[in-house]
Amino acid sequence: MSNEQQQGNNLDSWLDAYAARAETLAVSEVRALFSVVSRPEVVSLAGGMPYVAALPQELLAKAYHDLMAKKGNLAIQYGGGQGDLVLRDQIRELMALEGIQSSVEDLVITTGSQHGLDLLSGLFLDKGDVVVAEGPSYVGALGIFRHYEAEVEHVYTDHDGMSPEALQETITKLKAEGRKIKFLYLVPNFANPSGVTLSAERRPKILEICKREHILIIEDNPYGLLYFDKPVPDALRAVEEEGVVYLGSFSKILAPGFRVGYVLAPPAIRDKMVLAQESALLCPSSFTQMMISEYLANADWKGQIDTFRGVYHERKDAALAAMHEYLPDLHTTRPDGGFYLWITLPEGVDSKAMLPLAVKELVAYTPGTAFYGDGTGQNKLRICYSYPTPDQIKLGIKRLANVINLQTELLETFKGR
Amino acid sequence: MIPKGKAAAKLRIQVLAGGISHERDISLKSGRRVADALTEFGATVVIREPDAKLLVNIAKDKPDVIWPVLHGASGEDGALRDILTLTGVPFVGASPEAARLAWDKSIAKILVARAGIQTPPSITLPKETFRELDAESVLKTVTQAIALPVVVKPARGGSAQGVSIVTKIEDLNRAMVDAYVYCDVVIIEKLIEGTELALSVIDLGAGPIALPAVEVVPRTGHFSYEERYTAGETDYFIPARLDAKTSEAARKVAVTAHEVLGLRHLSRIDMIVDSSGVVWFLEANVLPGLTETSLLPMAITASGNSLGEVYYSLAEAAKRG
């Protein structure tokens, strides 16, 4: 028998060579179940995909032709590590819509705001550090924090967003335990997954607490411009410059395929971000940045955002109407913008355990536990209404109601012991 | 065993992968691996979804052979194989009738036991049984007859989805629910502790041959979905660390199970060897996983053959009929 046979073959010759943080990267059965959403028979209420079909492709085709005619060689060349200067200037105009005044010097363009959050996490998080976040919080952010071996402490959040009182209590408790809080991560507008918006009354309180406790705020705002009826309150960054790092994105107001986001940071943090970005990528894509720049310069981008608002408003109404018709007893959030409904299932129904049944019934959603770093959220689930048509949303929620009934019946059968 | 070298006359092979099942992701991965290996060996390969265009695509592609790499329902339950039979295009793997019998673990256990092979004591119950009778008293009776620890698993399905090992009575209800979300019929089976084995069987027309046994040692102790598909989570010993007598007994179980279930071309028979050397049949896989971490490709490689050669030879065997 050879040595290899005695030791066994684990199918990974480099298993002993990985960094400890690679332990957080594992195959997931739930993730594999989502494979069915690519089949047209399945109504996916799972992924948070924008409805890009509402964006006329000729606008992008024109931007492409104009760009290549005017600056083709620049567009396919390396660019600066901080991002394209013209686009940064245009982003200032975009951010002004939410009350933010800034200098192009303080903006860093990243490969989607997800990359911005990854760069920030790399700068700030050591193993065991604590990130304070809403409960629930964005699954993609939790994945990054987990990868940097940080711990997430969720703060009670209701229909007005994060509770300042609960935030203060959490900070006091963590400090008493001697734990190191590195930042507060917030999605203040139409949050993913809850759909709730941090109220205007709570914003100064959150800022005041963080300033007093010397805690940096990371304000992640991909959905703020996608309000249905009235604009959201001014961004936290509009009020506080030194204590807030602001993340923005073109993924929801234009298209996610460009992978362009941006970070507005205090100068010292910005410097480190640029160096970290250059180290990781050299520079963000010149081509996609300049495509967006061309689009912003020549297309009616504000009108396009209005179009998106109309589409999502109609779909939110369809989702709430279907919830009212098929699942009238379940609590759901009622967002004023964005992509998501956050639904509370009957006590004892575990949305993750129920997912295989949903796949059988040809509907998909995202289980609640994905949005917590501490394993809670079993009886919650997220519905995303942005991508399916209103008719598909209705069918999906009808199927979901059937799934919940089947699972409730099953749990009722095995309720003993 | 397998003819060496590139395919002389290229077969046109349509690989079917994907489908709507809990194992769609695995099927897509398996399908791409099979297609790559066949292409490398010289076949002309197209990968298709078994969807609304299935029959149109078969008419358009005019394949010499279809390779259904579909796991889970529709791929393994015989239904799609019935349709393929109607098209008249030869396909790799079990006939519809054999697939129906082997795919249902409870039926496979009965047939294999009739052939004199040991299989762990078990009871198979549809969901309705518990709805009609009192679940608590039924489970009490079951666990009196089959003492814990038990394995609770869906009667149909693969990749260990919905499978739980129950060592404490208070965990049984949860295990039942977790299995019923995958399938309306569930098996409660006595857990046999021992050496876990997977024996792949190949038949190119001259009779089934068992490939080297793969011994499976998951690091967590349970060969669940994550342990199956994450490299590094499980140690595999090929050939398995068995004495000659046990090794031969396992080989016989594999070939006999393949035969009595009427399987064709390929299968994987999962079994366990207890501390006294008894080989227990657990289940048969109509279409075993063919991903980069799957057991059948591992066994082919360990037998000194290339995946392309074996997969192509299976296609040729299917064409010969």
What is the compact description of this entry?
The complex is a heterodimer of chains A (417) and B (321). Chain A is an alpha/beta fold and 417 residues long. Chain A is built from 14 helices and 14 strands.
Low-confidence stretches of chain B: none
Number of strands of chain A: 14
CA-atom Rg of chain A in angstroms: 22 Å
Please tell me the overall pLDDT of chain B. Answer: 93
Judged by helices, strands and strand pairing, the structural class of chain A is alpha/beta
Which fold name fills CATH's third level, the topology of the largest domain in chain A? Aspartate Aminotransferase, domain 2
Order of helices and strands of chain A: HHEHHEHEHEEHEHEHEEHHHEEHEEEH
Instruction: Please provide the ordered H/E string of secondary-structure elements of chain B.
Output: EHEHEHHHEHHEEHEEEEHEHEEHH
* Widest beta sheet: strand line-up of chain A: 2-9-8-7-6-3-4-5
For the record, the count of structural domains of chain A works out to 2
CATH architecture designation of the domain at 101-118 and 193-304 in chain B: 2-Layer Sandwich
Beta content of chain A comes to: 5-15%
Binned, the helix content of chain B reads 25-40%
CATH superfamily of the domain at 101-118 and 193-304 in chain B: ATP-grasp fold, B domain
Could you say which structural class the secondary elements and strand pairing of chain B correspond to? alpha+beta
Largest interface: A-B, 38 and 48 residues
* CATH domain class name of the largest domain in chain A: Alpha Beta
Number of continuous helical runs of chain B: 12
Main β-sheet description of chain A: 8 strands, mixed
The coarse silhouette of chain A is: globular
CATH fold naming of the domain at 101-118 and 193-304 in chain B: D-amino Acid Aminotransferase, Chain A, domain 1
Description:
- The complex is a heterodimer of chains A (about 425) and B (about 325).
- Chain A is α/β, with parallel strands linked by helices.
- Chain A folds into 2 domains: about 25-50 and about 305-415, Alpha-Beta Complex (Aspartate Aminotransferase, domain 1); about 65-300, Aspartate Aminotransferase, domain 2 (3-Layer(aba) Sandwich).
- Chain A has 14 helices and 14 strands.
- In chain A, the strands form 3 sheets. Chain A has an 8-stranded mixed sheet, sandwiched between helices. In chain A, strands 10-11-14-13 form a 4-stranded antiparallel sheet.
- Chain A is globular, with a radius of gyration of 22 Å.
- The mean pLDDT of chain A is about 95.
- Chain B has about 325 residues and is α+β, with helices and mostly antiparallel strands.
- Among the domains of chain B are: about 100-120 and about 195-305, D-amino Acid Aminotransferase, Chain A, domain 1 (2-Layer Sandwich); about 120-190, ATP-grasp fold, A domain (Dna Ligase, domain 1), CATH 3.30.1490.20.
- In chain B, helix 1 (about 25-40) links the parallel strand 1 (about 10-15) and strand 2.
- At the A-B interface, helix 2, helix 13 and helix 14 of A face helix 1, helix 6, helix 7, helix 8 and helix 9 of B.
